[in-house]
Specification:
- InterPro entries: Bact_response_regulator (IPR050595), CheY-like_superfamily (IPR011006), Sig_transdc_resp-reg_receiver (IPR001789).
- By secondary structure, the protein is an alpha/beta fold.
- The chain contains five helices and five strands; from the N terminus they run βαβαβαβαβα.
- The chain has helices at 12-24, 35-41, 61-68, 88-97, 109-119; strands at 4-8, 28-32, 49-52, 79-83, 101-104.
- Strands 2-1-3-4-5 form a five-stranded parallel beta sheet, with helices on both faces.
- The longest helix has 13 residues, at 12-24.
- The protein is globular and about 30 Å long.
């Protein structure tokens, strides 16, 4: 059975590139365009990994991760932040919220897949 990954990003082109990279590597992909939509996708399905942007409208990535970690079913689901944010303060905030890994855009698909294979 292939592993499921939730991709959360407000940019359709980023979701498309990430989604294609993951699908081509054999993963199942569910997409959400912001943190609120991502929370709605957490309906009991098992996700092996969540890839999220930080800067999004409605609910940003860090707020989403904090809410995610309060849900028993998803408390231990690893989160990879895929973002333009590269500052240490933001990374520390992510780590404090429960983020496992941080990848800065623009990214190379093989680097993304390498990180995904370690986390998912």
């Amino acid at each position: 059975m292939s592993k499921s990954i939730l991709v959360v990003d407000d940019s359709p082109s980023v979701r498309q590139v990430v989604g294609l990279s993951l699908k081509n590597a054999g993963y199942q992909v569910v997409e959400a365009e912001d943190g609120m939509k991502a929370l709605e996708a957490l309906d009991g399905r098992r996700f092996h990994l969540i890839i999220s942007d930080v800067n999004m409208p409605i609910m940003d990535g860090l707020s989403f991760v904090k809410q995610l970690k309060q849900k028993d079913a998803y408390r231990f689901t690893p989160v990879l932040m895929l973002t333009t944010e590269s500052g240490d303060d933001m990374k520390q905030a992510g780590k404090a919220a429960g983020v496992k890994a941080w990848l800065v855009k623009p990214f190379k698909p093989d680097v993304l897949l390498s990180a995904v294979s370690k986390l998912a």
